[in-house]
Branched-chain amino acid transport system ATP-binding protein (Pseudacidovorax intermedius), 239 residues
Amino acid sequence: MSDYVLQARDVAIHYGGVKAVDGVELTLERGQIRGLIGPNGAGKSTVIDAITGRRRLTRGQVFLRGEDVSALGPVQRRQRGLSRSFQRTSVFGQMRVRRQVALASHCMNPKDSEADAQAVLEELNLAHRADDVAEDLGYGEQRRLDLALALVGRPTVLLLDEPMAGLSVQESHDLARHLKALTSRWNVSVLLVEHDMDVVFGISDAVTVFELGRVIASGEPAEVRANPRVREAYLGSAA
Ligand SMILES: Nc1ncnc2c1ncn2[C@@H]1O[C@H](COP(=O)(O)OP(=O)(O)OP(=O)(O)O)[C@@H](O)[C@H]1O
């Protein structure tokens, strides 16, 4: 049995003749942040969809804490501790912040949803906005609320698809700090798809690079940044 909280083995998703993802190997250790980077259309979101069960695998397997979850749907995987947030914020504008976090928590853990919601709101510095309706929050706070909804029920693994999109430099910095703190305080492991290279290389313990649906490099951030193929394919002169 492996020590990985998450493992993707030889994962492929094909749309007819389009090999959106092919032969992908990916691991995540407890408390680790792994950044997934690559050009537009490289297959990052498709890999996230494959892991959450939103897309059916053409080939391969997904393991969560050693259990093969490949045949399970998204809700069953969420119940087992695999959570995600989306590229677009998924909050309900008219509902109060505490209410929607508690409702999300109730689906995971009906006995203790109020306490769970309060802990999540405090962790993400949203407790002072708990009685406001979501649409009155600033954009950065709304993204944190989106993260809060993904964090209820204390997931083991968090999959984040471009959580920094649309945020200011300061808001990105704050969210990155929250993410880093979460991994140690809540023992959450994070798979992070993100185009902001400063964030990815700043907070990731490991980075995987995609190109045309395949992994072209994987390792510690400094090692990946120095990889000639990565520099040529993606980072260019900015590396
Ligand atoms: N439903 C679909 N049907 C056919 N092709 C698809 C479908 N969804 C994605 N693709 C193709 O799969 C490939 C991978 O797309 P994907 O969205 O996973 O890339 P990405 O790396 O997440 O890109 P971005 O950074 O722009 O979000 C692309 O060539 C895309 O056109």
Summary: The CA atoms of residues 40 and 211 lie 9 Å apart. The longest helix spans residues 169-185.
